[in-house]
Each structure stands twice: as structure tokens, then as C-alpha cells.
Design goal:
Blueprint: H1 18-28, H2 33-37, H3 45-60, H4 63-66, H5 68-73, H6 75-89, H7 91-126, H8 130-144, H9 148-163, E1 174-178, H10 186-197, H11 213-216, E2 233-236, H12 247-254, E3 259-262, E4 268-271, E5 277-281, E6 293-294, E7 297-301, H13 312-325, H14 332-340, E8 345-346, H15 348-360, H16 363-371, E9 385-386, H17 388-399, H18 401-406, H19 408-419, E10 429-430, H20 431-446
Parallel strand pairs: 1-5, 1-7, 2-5
Antiparallel strand pairs: 3-4, 6-8, 9-10
Helix pairs in contact: 3-6, 3-7, 6-7, 8-13, 10-13, 15-19, 16-20
Amino acid sequence: MKIETICATNSTREQPSDLVRMYIEHEEQGGTVATFLQRFEFESRDEIGKAVRDLSFAIVGDRWVSDKYTQEMVVRMKCLYKRFQTICTNPDKFDKYPIALSGELWHGGYSRKRVEQAAERLQAAHTPTSEQWLAAVERIKITYQLTDIDINKIRFFVCQCRAGEEFPNSLRRMLYVWGTAKMTGKTTVATMIVSILNGDENWNNIAKYSTALAYEMQIKSFAVPKISECNACLMDECFYADMGKTYADFKRFITSSGGTARLPFGQEFAWSGYPNYVATSNDPLQRFIKDWNDRRYLSVEFKNAPTRTLTFEEIFDLWRTFVCGCKPLTDWKTWAEDIARNANEIGERTERSNEFEIELKRSEFLDLVISKTCMSDRVSSSDNHVSLKFFVDYFAQQIGAAEAQKRREEIEHAVLNVYGSRYSTQTYWLLSDLKKRATELKRAIIYGDDVETVSVENEDVKLPF
């Protein structure tokens, strides 16, 4: 029901207009302007702001409410009249009140309802047959040189977005479309997918569905996440160069839903939405993941330029067929566990640990270990004890003391992988064991063997996580 359909001009000194009477009855039941307006349909935030102003003028201009006899007999009407008269006659309030209230209502539910209806209409109008969907999949794989695993990842994300509240928050993933090469079509594909999921057949409107990490995580003041207005959002180069202080908060955010916000001049309100994001980037995920690894991403690499030249209309039709035809393979948990085998992305810590492993296998370090003197091979001899500090100090000469201390866990992880676990449950390795292992690795280098195939003698490696 539209608020314009209710007459606000038929008031008399004996009774209020229909609109004012409805509002008075609503307020008597404990309602507010916000809850009253939720009865009606609005297509935009501007429409809500206009309705706030129209309601204010209707109350102030109502002959029954403004009548002095009415205000004397019904004290509540006098308070109602003065409250809205203040809004209408105070320029500051007249500007700020509709802005704040319309923002709260729009982000609090109207925008999501509107985009969900648009997505349902597009889905109903373009649902393909199984044969059409499979043909689109094959064409996508050939055109963009994607694998079955890549298709499965995109399919999971699409089904996740369309499931809404039925999808478990803990299983939510971000679709990460990337590639170091230019002109691979990754941004175009991401744009098409996001537009279709939002029910918009004009991909040129992608600015309506584009956002940034600072905005979504409400790092900026008065930021309401764009996801409150969309089924899915596009984030180009979404991560900061240094995600160290933000990454933990981002992990919690990506597996949550809804939240609270406050706009200028307004009160805190609740917004609803599900953080479904398509990120595009030229860089691999390892540069941004601050844990050892992470399964919150569905990484799809576009390595080369498309094998076929397609118009934007053809690209849109192709991906619309794919998106509208996607159906879940199985239940969410089983599907998520299955896809996790190919979505376990290594992080910066794992990458750094791997680099330390390479250094620990170089001839320079092996020679240092082999040449280290040991007065006795007995377990109880302190000369035969080597702590983690020995390795940290070695890397401190290369990367600096502060950085080496910061990377202490990564160094420990590398040492455990190369030299095995510590002696028993103690805090040290036996130098005799280290020298033996270093000798094996040195021999492998001399004779051209693959160092990676030289196994650690103590297979009971205790990882630090």
C-alpha cells in the first residue's frame, strides 16, 4: 500500500483526516513514525523522506488536531501538534529529521526487500533448462579456461547468495576473482555475476553494488554496509596492503549477518544483510591472509585472455544462464566440506615459513650446523643442546632482530619441518641429531638428489598450531 493513496485533506473540526487518524491510532498503541511508515511500500530512500515530510505537514495542517478545543479536551493532541509543528517550522529539524529517519528505514529493510524482489523476477524470467545450463557451463570453461573446480566454487557462491538466511553463517565464503595478467575478463565476469544476483539486467549500474572494505566493516564514521542494500557486492582490490590489525575483525565479519549503524542526526538502528562479496584483484590471496591458512575464500584465477571475443550482451546472457540455473549439489555442510579441499588457501605465515625452510636447507646454514662444536654427544651435555634462539639469531642477521622475533613461530615451524621435533618434551634439539640431519641434506645437494625427498628421521613432528 502506498501512503499517497490515503487522503490527508479531508479533515474537519469534528474529525481528523484518514491519514492522521491512522497515525493517531498507531501512536496510541505505542507506535512511532518509523513503525507507522513500515506499513507502506517505498521504492527509494527519497520516497521515504518525502513521506516523513508529508506526514508532518498533514498533522500540523489537520483542522481537528490544530483546533484549540480538541487540544484542550485531548491533551495528547496538543503534544502531538507541537511536536510536529517544531519539525515543520524549524529549518534545521525539517532537513535533518527526514534524512535520518529515511536512512534508518531504507537500510533497515526496504532496500533488501526491493533487491530480493528484483532478483526473484529475473530468476523467474530466465530460469534455463538443465541442457541450457550445462551448455553455458561448457562455454564458460572454454572461453575463460576455467576448471571444474573453478565452476564448482562459483556455483557454491551463487547458491550461497540466493539462499539468504537459510545459509549457515559459519560456512560463508568470499568469491575471490584474480589474475596477474591484464585483459583476462575477471572484472567483467565479477560485474556480471554481481549484477545478476541483484536482479539488475543493466551491468552499467555496477556502481550501485560496489563498495570498499572500510565501508563494509564500518571503519568510517556513519557507514552503513552496502550489503544491507544488496544480495552481493563487488569489491575491487578490497584488501589493505597491511591487513595485520584488521584481518581478525574481517574473519568475524565475513561469517556474521546484520548489525547496527547510526546515520548523521539519527539514532542507532539495526540493518539486515549477508556479507556476500565478489572481490577482484591482481594479487594472490597469500599477500593478505595473516593466518597459516584460511578456507573463507573461493579463489578463481583468470590466467589468460578469453579464447573467444564476446560482446557485453553475450557475456551477460552467458553468465545469466549460469547464475539462474545454479542449484545446490547437496546439503550446505557436505558441500562446504567437499569444496574446502580445494579452497584451503595458504596465508602469509605459511608462505614465510616456507621461505625459512628453503634457507635452512641451503649449504651456508648446513655448513654452520655441521661445523658447530660439541664436546659430548651425551643427552645430558649442555653442549649438545640447541634451542630455538640459535635459529632465530641466524635469521636476525638477515632480516633484522625485530623481524626475526616477530616471525618466531614461522621460524619454529620451518625448523620442525626440516629437522624434526625437539628431543622428547624438552625445549631443545640435540646438536648431534641436527648435525646428522644437516649431513644428510648436504650429501643430497652434493650428489644432486632432491632435498625435499630427504625425510626427517623423527617423523613425530609437533607443529606449533
